[in-house]
Every structure is written in C-alpha cells, then in structure tokens.
Specification:
This protein is 36% helix and 17% strand. The chain is α/β, with parallel strands linked by helices. Strand 6, helix 5 and strand 7 form a beta-alpha-beta unit.
Length: 321
C-alpha cells in the first residue's frame, strides 16, 4: 500500500538553455518557412518533444538523402560531424544549426588544437550523436574512451601534444575518475580550461545529490535515449536511493511507492515541465498531500537564435537562390 506523504522537486530540473533554443529553432522555422521542416536526428532526446514537433510539421531523418533538394534542414542540439555539414551544404539545403553552443565550444576547441598538432582523447559514450559529432570534427587523431579500462588501451600516435575533451552530458563523477586515469597515464595531457560537461548537467546532478538523502525514492522524468537523464537515475541509485526513469506518468508503477513516504522528482535537460506536472498528479493520486521545491540554483542563461529566424525579419532568406 502506497503511503506517499510528500513530493520534493529538485531544483533545477528539466529544460536547459540549449534545449529551449533547439526547440525554438524548429518551431520558428516551421512558422517562417512552412512545413515540412527536416531535422537531422531527434532535435533533443525526448519522445514527447519529438512527437509534438512532428505534429507541427517537423520530419526527423538520419540520412540526408531523405531530404528533398531546396528543403530547410535543422541540425539537432547534439551537433554533427564535418562530413554531415559538408554533405548538407553540397545538397543545397537551407540550414539552421541547433547545436547547443556548449557543444559547439568543444568543436571549436578540437579544431583549434588540431591545427596546433594535437591528438585527442574523448571521454563519452560510443554511438551517442554528440560523440559522433565531436569526433567527426576530425578525420583522425581522436580516440574514444568510455571508462577507466579503455584509458589503458588507447594508443595515440604521439603523446607530446595530447588533449582531453568530454561529452557534455556525462556523469560529473565518472568523467572526473576517467580524466584522472588519463592524467595518470599521460601526465602532460592538456585539459579544457573549463570542463566540457555543461552547467545544466552539473546543476541537475548536484540537485540530485542534495535530493537523494532526503527521500525514499527518486523518479527521473526523461527518455531512454537521453544521456543526461540516465545519469541522474544512476546517480540517485549510487547514492543508495531507489530510482526509476520514466518517459511519462503512464510508466509509473504503484508498487514502486509501497512503503515510501517521500518521493523526490527531477527531470533531465530535455524533458518538458508538463511531464513533471503529470507525474506529480499521478503521485498525488497515490496519496501525496504536499509538494515542495528544494532550494537550488536558478538558471538564467539564454542562448541567441541563429540569424534568419526572427519572425518579423523580412530580409531572412526563404531559400538559397
């Protein structure tokens, strides 16, 4: 029998500035240029967001061959490789880049140091689109490590000029452990001035660290493909609090709440607040009487939109002439 008394909301949670911007780019492109707008890869890793944009006229593709000539194409928030950028330009699409500026910052750093003769060790998850985009800034000389064991096996061509970069949505603690292993093996490795893991990933993980000890159960709202959401669930679990990730309130199971009086709730950076509200309603139906917000960092960062998407901007090109 569920005896939930209280729901405690992590702060901050949910959308970050990069996700806000990416969704707005697609929505504005649809209004300005008309449907359909093609998007390479899911704009952000959230089922609800993707379905909402599909309903408005976005078509999500993986292969640029699926996009008709002259169409408007948006690159997802995760970023793309140089090869994809070049192919998109060659095919003559009107391109809007929704890559998160914090991912672009990593791309710029890689390009700059590669010119100086650096090789790279990238800490990240194989197959994740952000990792493919960052590694795809170069044709060679960037080596992926997923864990400490990989660090021992990596074989750069030279170690004089070696730099480390990371996927922006990793576990802060895991990345620190892998970075330490890289430093131990390659003491002269160059590390980023500011860590690559983004402020939003860090803030949401810090909030879970505060939340977990106060509750009997942590629910993370996020989609299975969302790296930063998965890390939040793992973090709560590692801190000894039972934790589940759900894509929507429909996935909540009453048995999770048995004997749990305080439930912590957070959401990954790509999960909209409407889903959090629906989870709150479902937990209230199980008996929760109070909902309170933890104190936490208030995020005020906002990223500018690319040129040519202002809705009152008559001079923006509708197509490449």
């Amino acid at each position: 029998m569920a005896n939930v008394q209280e729901v405690i909301l992590a702060e901050p949670r949910g959308f970050c500035a990069g996700v806000d911007r990416a969704i707005e780019i697609v929505e504005r492109a649809i209004v300005k240029f008309g449907a359909p707008i093609y998007v390479r890869h899911e704009i952000v890793h959230n089922t609800y967001v993707v379905n909402d944009l599909k309903a408005k006229g976005a078509i999500f593709i993986e292969d640029l061959a699926e996009v008709p000539p002259g169409a408007t194409l948006v690159f997802s928030a995760h970023g793309v490789s140089k090869a994809v950028q070049q192919e998109a330009r060659a095919r003559g699409f009107e391109i809007f880049d929704a890559t998160c500026p914090l991912v672009t910052k990593v791309h710029v750093e890689v390009a700059k140091l590669a010119k100086e003769g650096y090789e790279f060790i990238m800490i990240g998850h194989k197959g994740h689109p952000e990792v493919e985009g960052t590694m795809g800034q170069l044709t060679s000389g960037i080596h992926l490590v997923e864990d400490v064991a990989d660090v021992a096996r990596v074989q750069p061509a030279q170690t004089e000029k070696l730099a480390v970069v990371t996927q922006t949505t990793l576990s802060v603690d895991d990345a620190a452990e892998i970075s330490a292993a890289v430093r131990a093996r390659f003491p002269s490795v160059r590390e980023p001035k500011q860590q690559d893991i983004c402020y939003a990933t860090q803030n949401r993980q810090d909030a879970v660290k505060l939340l977990s000890p106060q509750v009997d159960l942590v629910i993370v709202v996020g989609s299975p493909t969302s790296s930063n959401s998965n890390r939040l669930r793992e973090l709560a679990q590692r801190l000894g609090t039972e934790s589940y990730m759900v894509d929507s309130a429909d996935e909540l199971k009453p048995e999770w709440f048995e004997g749990k009086s305080r439930v912590g709730l957070t959401a990954g950076a790509s999960a909209p607040e409407i889903l959090v509200r629906e989870v709150i309603d479902r937990v209230k139906a199980l008996g929760a009487v109070s909902v309170r917000k933890m104190d936490g960092i208030e995020e005020t960062l906002k990223f500018p939109l690319p040129k040519g998407l202002k809705l009152d901007d008559k001079s923006a090109p509708g197509h490449i002439s």
